[in-house]
Design brief:
about 475 residues; alpha+beta; Heat Shock Protein 90; 2 domains; five-stranded mixed beta sheet; three-stranded antiparallel beta sheet; 14 helices; about 65% helix; about 10% strand; disordered C terminus; EC 2.7.13.3
Length: about 475
């Protein structure tokens, strides 16, 4: 390894050694680097000068200068030692005091006039006190410096041989004092401005740290809130699934217990089969809220389809509620997912039943409305306030008790209507019941035959007899998501 290759690592290690000072205050730690460099230079320089003065001229004057340089070097090393042990302010104060004493001794020995060219270097203690110790230290150092100037002027007066030299000594003292006073005032203003800027910077840094802490705290709170909402949503969905499946199981149980009364199991099997299909549809629709699902479309007569749902709707209502299903208007062909239509009608029927705890009347009718088929559903229940009606399709909004409703019933209804290009309207008032109209676009009857032909062609040679022919249409889960039965 060459010297050039080894120099950067050595230099970096030396800088790292200088930075490893046990000082807590950030400002003092930054200033410690500069003070270490100054003390190291002075200590090494004075030591080399002492050695040189001792070897050059071995007379009495050289020995005095030699010991003076050694004392200055030892003093500087002592200050550096204190600084390396974390005593920054003590080391700086001793450095300033030593500089002022050395300057006073020099002025006492040689006078002010003979050292006029060195006054710039004599300002070093003043600058160190201002930069490292503050305004108070500047003025104390200025007072000591004025005393040193007075000592130098006194020496000049003692060495003066005539009145002209005495007058010149007074003039030098006045000019030096004025220049020094201006410098002290400027340095004081600079320190004041610098301290204000540093204080403002520290306040901004503290504010940034506080804001960062608050942001992190809010992020953690937001994560906890999201987790809580997830758990609440899971609880609501679990309750809703249990509620809806309980209604479907009630239908199945009602059909199963009627076997003993009717004595013919074949008569109740279609109803049980249809209820089971509704349960599968419910599961599929719940999953559709979170990911893309497959919709099975078929073209069918709306009145005929609702008539087949009659065995599922009637068991939903108790004997105290009169149920009327008017499917006399036939020939209204629609293209939709038949299972989803059944689930939508069951959800509305379940809400109507809950709205009439003391009994009442529920009516379902089918009629033509221009180029749409219209399903009218009406109950004589407690009705809804305008505030509740405005939130009828809001996700997870419900006025039912926690164990009876979750607010996903009308979500299923609204999404079914929206996905099939239809429209839904609701009208209600407290004590006046609720009226809901669902409008679905009409389809051509030929679409049913075309669907059947396409299906039979796709099933060849494995044909099976089906009453309805279905086509698979993918749907987008990003479509309208409104929810919640009251």
């Amino acid at each position: 390894m060459t010297a050039r290759e080894s120099f950067p690592p050595l230099w970096h290690r030396f800088i790292g050694w200088m930075q490893r000072v046990p000082i807590r205050a950030a400002r003092d730690k930054r200033n410690a680097m500069a003070l270490q460099a100054i003390l190291a230079v002075v200590a090494v320089t004075t030591l080399l000068m002492a050695i040189g003065s001792c070897a050059a001229a071995p007379d009495m004057a050289s020995y005095t200068e030699h010991w003076l340089l050694l004392i200055v070097s030892a003093y500087t090393w002592a200050c550096l030692y204190l600084l390396r042990h974390g005593l920054f302010r003590l080391s700086t104060s001793l450095t300033v005091i030593g500089g002022v004493i050395l300057m006073a001794v020099s002025y006492h020995a040689y006078g002010l006039r003979s050292q006029s060219g060195l006054q710039i270097t004599h300002l070093l203690p003043l600058l160190l006190s201002g930069l490292f110790l503050g305004r108070t230290a500047v003025w104390w150092t200025a007072l000591a410096y004025a005393a040193a100037l007075a000592i130098g002027a006194r020496t000049d007066l003692q060495l003066a041989t005539d009145s002209m030299q005495a007058s010149e000594a007074s003039t030098n003292l006045l000019l030096s004092g004025m220049n020094f006073l201006v410098l002290v005032a400027i340095l004081d203003r600079l320190i004041l401005s610098s301290r204000r800027a540093i204080s403002r910077s520290e306040e901004l840094n503290a504010l940034c740290l506080e804001l960062q802490r608050q942001v992190e705290e809010k992020e953690r709170a937001y994560e906890r809130l999201v987790q809580t909402q997830k758990m609440e949503t899971i609880g609501r969905l679990s309750t809703g699934i249990a509620h809806d499946f309980n209604a479907i199981l009630s239908v199945i149980l009602g059909h199963a217990t009627s076997v003993g009364r009717r004595g013919d199991i074949d008569a109740v099997l279609p109803g049980i089969r249809q209820a089971a299909r509704s349960g599968a549809t419910l599961t599929r629709r719940l999953l559709s809220f979170s990911r893309t699902h497959t919709r099975h479309l078929s073209t069918f007569d709306l009145a005929e389809a609702i008539e087949e749902v009659r065995p599922l709707i009637l068991p939903v209502f108790p004997r105290a509620i009169q149920v009327s299903l008017d499917t006399s208007v036939s020939g209204l062909w629609v293209k939709a997912d038949r299972d989803e239509l059944v689930l939508a009608l069951l959800n509305i029927a379940s809400n109507a039943c809950d709205a009439m705890p003391q009994g009442g009347r529920f009516t379902l009718s089918v009629e033509a409305d221009g180029d749409h088929a219209c399903i009218g559903l009406e109950d004589t229940g407690i009705g809804m306030t305008p505030e509740v009606l405005a939130r009828l399709y809001e996700p997870f909004f419900t006025t039912k008790p926690r164990d009876r409703g979750t607010g996903i019933g009308m979500a299923t209804v609204h999404r079914f209507v929206a996905d099939h290009g239809g429209a839904i309207q609701a009208d209600s008032a407290p004590g006046e019941g609720t009226r809901i109209r669902i409008r679905l676009p009409l389809a051509e009857p030929e679409d049913s035959l075309r669907d059947e032909a396409d299906w039979e062609l796709a099933q060849t040679p494995h044909r099976t007899s089906h009453r309805e022919i279905s086509t698979v249409v993918p749907t987008d889960p990003a479509m309208t998501r409104h929810a919640a039965a009251p």
